[in-house]
Amino acid sequence: MVGASISAAGGYRHATDGQSLEAEYDLIVLGAGAGGMAAAITAQSRGLKVAIFEKTSLIGGTGAVSGGACWVPANHSQAAQGIEDSIERASIYLDNVVPTKTGRDLRQVYLRRAPEAVKYLEDVADLVMPARPFTPDYHSDTEGAQNQGRVMVTKNFDGSLLGERFNDLRGPLPENCLFGKAMVDGPDLMHLLNSRRSLRSAWHAVKFMAAYALDRLRHPNYRRGSRLTTGNAMVARMYRAILDRRIPVFLDAGATALRVDGDRVCGIELPGGIRVDARWGVVLATGGFPGGLKMRAALLPGEAGRGVYTAAPRDNTGDGIALGQTAGAAMDDSNMQGAFWCPVSTGTRTDGSIAHFPHLLADRPKPGLIAIDRHGRRFTNESEPYHSFVQAMLAGDHLPVHLICDHGFIRRYPFGITRPAPFPLRHHLRSGYLISGRTIEDLARALSVDPQALRATVDRFNEDARAGVDREFGRGSTIYQRNLGDARVKPNPSLGPIRKGPFYAIKVDPGDIGTIHGLAADEHSRALDADGHVVPGLYACGNDRASVMGGAYPAGGITLGPVLTFAYLAAMHAADSAQMAPAEKRQPPA
Q: Taking each helix axis from N to C terminus, what angle separates 186-193 and 199-218, rounded to the nearest 10 degrees?
């Protein structure tokens, strides 16, 4: 039997006050991110005794730094808003955009069960996730695509409802916050960017900053503002449900091994030789391997494998995957890509810490920016989804790649970790994050690029921008691309000329927001061995299991949607197994 206090055994701490480590649970969950918490809440709601073990001191995982979107076709919120959609239409879309038919059965499982999973979590965890009325699928000109309602995003949350546990939450990227500490949602960002042009937006900005100041006065012990949005709101709502349900969470408590009895996973080991039994299984939900140097080198291509250009938490190092392999689980190598790609720039914050910034939607699709390769030429459509953009980076002799804009752009829109006027640029110029040139030719020389090639590239792009038609790559030709541009710019919201110096560049590397390669798992999230047989007692969800999207990135939310859904399915299977077991096996040992 294990002693009453886990802290005595290894310095771990409880996130749930008054609960000590026990010798046995019905289900053990490794990882306190969105997937781990979803599995724990679902299992506990079905009557299982559950505990979560998290190797870091923080709650939230990758979900905490994400946009919090879940792609769920034919969801209940769509129906409530009168938006028509169907699983059949979504299936056609996936068949058209996923490059491999391998895994199609699991994608069908996802389409059928995701609406059920999200609705269940809304009911038991207060995970309020309205469907966005207008958010196009990424390949919006493809048959089966939908422009409305498939993307669900968690409603903003008052983090002060977590009380003293608020500081357990992993924070968002500071670059996505005002002053590095105040989270902003879509309407906030729109008003903040327009505050110098619109009285309405200026008033919104004043109210926003006043509310933030009052919040800081009310909660001086919080490390940041307590108004939470996007993925941070999602994990905070789930954490509140964890606390309300008194599901024990042990932080700084990474498992060192899985315990196996015969061929069945029956528990975990913790540092110090502590053993904890799991009657109905162990759920791996440790976030994949974005920070795992060895796994990146082995599983990701070229420069993406040599460096750690990730916006995901770097303490997600593949622990769950490695543990699963020791118990006989196999990697699923059917995915066409190794990660959820996005271009990432690396800069130094004013406090000296390093920022790895994902260039998702805020700058690349805006008019007046281009991406150039080492030859000084454009190589792809800058308004393409971030996953597709990095695929283009890796597809030829393009690296290094830089994003380029003029002075008007950098004062109007966010550009990497820089902020528009009135925020200064001095720090980013001094640190080398921003590279500048008085003329296009000066900038080319600073980038070690042929000045004549870059001048020809810019001149051609400017000619197309004035005409509103990108003859080279068709930028702004789809609803998705135009939606991410600037509606005030005519005739094409995705195109604007690069005209007035000084000119600026940021180097971007082939990075990611999480990894795709993971353990093979079935429709119940049971881990599978190399022969496709179930590893009894072992479940893999989140980024510890291979993405069901075959290496494609069809829409915003195709990461978190499956994370929640397959975590739910794992917990449901474990609960069903417990209920169907003979009565004597359902009773705790004497």
A: 120
| C-alpha to C-alpha distance for 431 and 445, rounded to whole angstroms | 18
DSSP lists the bridge partners of residue 506 as 403
Closest to 10 in 3D by CA, of 66, 69, 55:
55
Query: What does the DSSP 8-state code read for residue 33?
Result: B
Query: Would the pTM count as exceeding 0.90?
Result: yes
- Beta carbons within 8 Å of 139's beta carbon, 6+ residues apart: 93, 96, 97, 145, 385, 478, 480, 554
472, 310, 464, 322: which is closest to 392 by C-alpha?
472
What is the spatial distance between Cα 335 and Cα 543, in angstroms, rounded to a whole number?
A: 13
Give yes or no for a contact between 527 and 37, defined as CB atoms under 8 angstroms apart: no
Enumerate residue ranges in the chain where pLDDT < 70.
1-18, 582-590
Distance between alpha carbon 330 and the CA centroid of its chain, in Å? 24
Q: pLDDT value at position 589? A: 35
Cβ-contact 365, 371 below 8 angstroms: no
Give per-residue pLDDT as tens, 514-527: 999 999 999 999 99
DSSP label of 544: G
Alpha-carbon gap, residue 52 to 13, rounded angstroms:
12
DSSP per-residue codes, 102-157 = TTHHHHHHHHHHHHHHHHHHHHHH----PBPSS---TTTTSTT--SSS-EEEPPPE
Model pLDDT, residue 485: 96
Kindly report the backbone phi and psi dihedral angles of residue 276, in degrees, each rounded to the nearest multiple of 5, phi listed first: -130, 125
As beta bridge partners, residue 436 has 504
481's tokens = 């691309």
CB count within 10 Å of CB 528 equals: 21
Of 161, 159, 133, residue with least CA distance to 148 = 133
Q: Write down all domains in the chain, each with its CATH number in brackets.
A: 69-153 (no CATH), 340-512 (3.90.700.10)
HEC string for 33-70 = EHHHHHHHHHHHHCCCCEEEECCCCCEEHHHHHCCCEE
Query: Cβ neighbours of residue 247 under 8 Å, at least 6 residues apart?
Result: 16, 40, 41, 44, 50, 51, 52
| φ, ψ dihedrals at 139, nearest 5° | -105, 70
Distance CA 152, CA 181 (A): 25
Pair 40, 247: CB distance under 8 Å: yes
E strand map for 443-576:
503-515, 518-519, 526-528, 534-540
CB 70 within 8 A of CB 129: yes
Neighbours of 164 (CB within 10 A): 9
Cis bond leading into 491, ω under 30°?
yes
Which pLDDT belongs to residue 202?
A: 87
Q: Quick one: pLDDT at residue 487?
A: 93
Structural contact between residues 252 and 12, judged by C-beta atoms closer than 8 angstroms? yes
